[in-house]
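Input/output pair, single chain:
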Amino acid sequence: MAKITGVKTVDMVGGEITKVAYGGDEYVKVDGPAVKGDLVSIVKAWGGIPAGEFYSVDQVTGTRGREFVYIDGSANGYQSSVQPFRKVSAQSAPAIEERVATLEKRVDALEPAEEPLKVGDYAKIADHVSYDGYAGAGDIVEIHSNVGGFYDFRVVKVSDKSDYTLFDSRSLVRATDEEVAEAKAKLESEKWAKIGRKPNEFKVGDIVRVLDGSDSWLSDGDIGEIAQIDTDDVPYRVKTAEVTDSNWLCVEGIELITPVEARFDR
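Output:
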């Protein structure tokens, strides 16, 4: 005995299936007992017949209230164990697919609309946009401010904030977190490469800004010199005029201001 496969839901009401399609025909849910030729959905499992599957009805026997439904020529169960669906009209395969597509559109319409871009958001310049001398298709930008007239926004590239350009909202799509992180990582790598170092390659004598001094006597924003580098998880000792002890920081806690090679006081 084999269950029917390929049954497609055509209509639902209140979360319950009211119409299905199978073999080029449509079947509508009926409240009465199943008859020969119906499709039935199993609502109460019995024997080896699981609930939720569809079968075709071969015959119905017995008296009212004790009628047995035969499916696939062998298995039988009570009428109360099945929900019948009765053929209502012949449908061509394309028409059925069209109904399914309509249902999918209804589901899509229920999804919340994406919020419009605003100042402070990150966006990617759309593929159809030509390079304007500063930015073009695929660049990740930050929306800096609103502007009037033909354009909606003034934007700056994440990879180069030395300039700006103007775009309307149709030329921008919201950037994913991964795209923004990748653009920032690329910028950071390029900044370190310009001084001949790998990212976060600090040296003794570098001037740095404290980003997180919570586990030391240093305060966020302090400017100091890397006086010593160790090999543990908190490797950088940052010395300022006021703090010369309890001043070890991790790599995430400092930001390079001036590399030692560029200091004029050395």
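The chain has a mean pLDDT of 86. The chain has three domains: 8-110, 113-196, 207-262.
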